[in-house]
Each structure stands twice: as C-alpha cells, then as structure tokens.
Design a protein that fits this description.
The protein is of the alpha+beta class. The chain is 51% helix and 12% strand. The longest helix is centred in the first third of the chain and has 42 residues, at 3-44. It is globular.
Length: 282
C-alpha cells in the first residue's frame, strides 16, 4: 500500500465520524425545532387567552451557545419552523454588560447574533431575556406570553402580593414554591438586566432555579427542560390567576403557610406526580 493510500485510509474513520456527528446534530436540531413549533402553537392557540397577533415569544436551546427564538413580527398561533431564527447566546448576552449600550447597540447586537448567513429578519426584542435564561443548562424551552387573567393581576395594585403566595398543592407542584417577581421597567435591555439580577437573587436565596417569572404590567415567562412543562406551567399560572381573581372578589385569598408550601414541595409522592404530569399529553 502506498503512502497516499495509507493516508487516505487513515482519514476515512475521521470523515465518517464527522459525517455521522453532523447528521446526528441536524436530526436533533430538527426535533428541537419541531417541539418548539408545537409548543408555540399551543401557547398561541386562539382558544387559549395567552397571546394574540404578534404577542409573545418562545425559544429552545440547540447547544451550549445557540438557540432558536421567534423572529420578530411572527404569530405564535400560526408559526412554522421558518418562523424561528438560530441565535448565539454569547453574542446576545454580551450587550448586557456594556454600560454604554442603547437602542442602536441592542439592534446591532441582535442582528449580529443571528447564525444564518444572509438572514434579513430580526429576532424578537425579548431575545436578550431568552439568552440570559438559556445560559442555565437546566432550561431547554422558554415561553413568554401575556395571559389575560395573569396580566389582569400583574396590572393591579396587589400584583406583588398575589404572585408571591401559593393557594393549593397543584399551584406548588407545577409552578414551584415561589416565583420571581420583577417590577415594571423599560422593556428590552433594561428589563433583561433586571430579570438577570432578580433570577440570580432568587437562586441565591432559594437554592433552586425558578420555573416562572412574573413581569409587572407586562407578562409572564415559563422555563423548563421540556416543551410540555412550559405549557403546563403556563396553563397552571392562568388557572391560578383566575382563582386568585375570584378569591379577591370573595373577600381575599387564604394563603398556604410557608410550612405547608415547603411540605408539598418536598414530598416524594408530589415529586412522583410532578413527573407524571409532565408526560401527560394535552
């Protein structure tokens, strides 16, 4: 065998491995994108009061430094795979630490973060929040919506109190023992920085990642490792918001105690039920 033949033979395994790796990654990306489309259409379904017109945005992790996010101007209810843009986490989050950044810099950063050559569309303005949350590897899917009852509370004078408590076991099982609450600030860069600070404070104080974020006078974020859980969290948030509105109308809610909340949050049978709920199809 000549040296040329030996060289060609020795590179074949590497070539085959690379081909298999790229094929596997493409299959994975396709599967993630399909799940993201299904989740987005669920959240944007006109029969669910979560988002209308161009409201809301969704995302899903591709790998450690990239994710799909809804393109600006698309509609969740009818979105297709083409409605999502691949974006770099690192490029997006870099602007958060730039003290001189303004609207122009944010726009330029979002455009430069798109990982598709020749793409003219812009990712959603909320992309910065998706990127900073997807830095946590435990999160793989994120849904941001404006549910009617939930926003009814978030636009009220009692929103902080209402979103801080828990009313019943399922409230805790699906949404966690506590939510992150963010007071109203300017959407975009300022809000992304505030969300980052509040999520970091929550993790430090509670020792766990939050499942949802309540944005005063704005909307709601659900984060999870599966698309199904994002839908479950959103469903339960809106249901509990409807119950809260009824409870306030009837004289005020009766909150579970901190001890009761911790008990439900740590019970093995509730953990089992939590896993079972996450696999039930709608």
């Amino acid at each position: 065998m000549s040296s040329l033949q030996r060289s060609a033979y020795s590179t074949q395994p590497v070539f085959v491995y690379n081909q298999l790796f790229h094929h596997a990654k493409e299959c994975y990306m396709s599967e993630v994108l399909q799940q993201l489309v299904e989740m987005s259409r669920y959240l944007g379904d006109p029969n669910r009061p979560y988002a209308i017109l161009g409201e809301g945005n969704t995302s899903a992790r591709i790998d450690d430094d990239s994710f799909y996010v809804k393109a600006s101007g698309t509609t969740l209810a009818t979105i297709t795979e083409d409605g999502f843009l691949p974006v770099s986490i690192r490029k997006v989050t870099g602007v958060l630490d730039d003290p001189m950044a303004g609207d122009a810099e944010v726009s330029a950063t979002l455009r430069a973060s798109v990982l598709r050559a020749g793409e003219a569309r812009m990712p959603s303005v909320e992309t910065m929040m998706h990127a900073l949350l997807l830095q946590y590897p435990e999160y793989r899917f994120i849904g941001h919506t404006h549910p009617v009852a939930t926003n009814g509370i978030l636009c009220s004078r009692v929103s902080r109190e209402a979103m801080a408590g828990r009313l019943c076991p399922d409230h805790i099982v699906v949404m966690g023992h506590k939510s992150v609450y963010v007071s109203y600030v300017d959407p975009g860069l300022v809000l992304a920085r505030e969300v980052r600070a509040q999520v970091r404070a929550f993790i430090e104080q509670e020792g766990v990642l939050p499942k949802c974020i309540m944005l005063e006078n704005h909307g709601f974020f659900a984060m999870a490792d599966t698309a199904k859980k994002v839908c479950n969290i959103t469903d339960m948030t809106e249901k509990m918001s409807q119950i809260l509105i009824g409870a306030y109308a009837a004289g005020g809610p009766t909150w579970l105690s901190e001890a009761d909340i911790r008990r439900i949050d740590t019970r093995p049978d509730e953990h089992y039920r939590q896993k079972a709920i996450a696999t039930v199809k709608h």
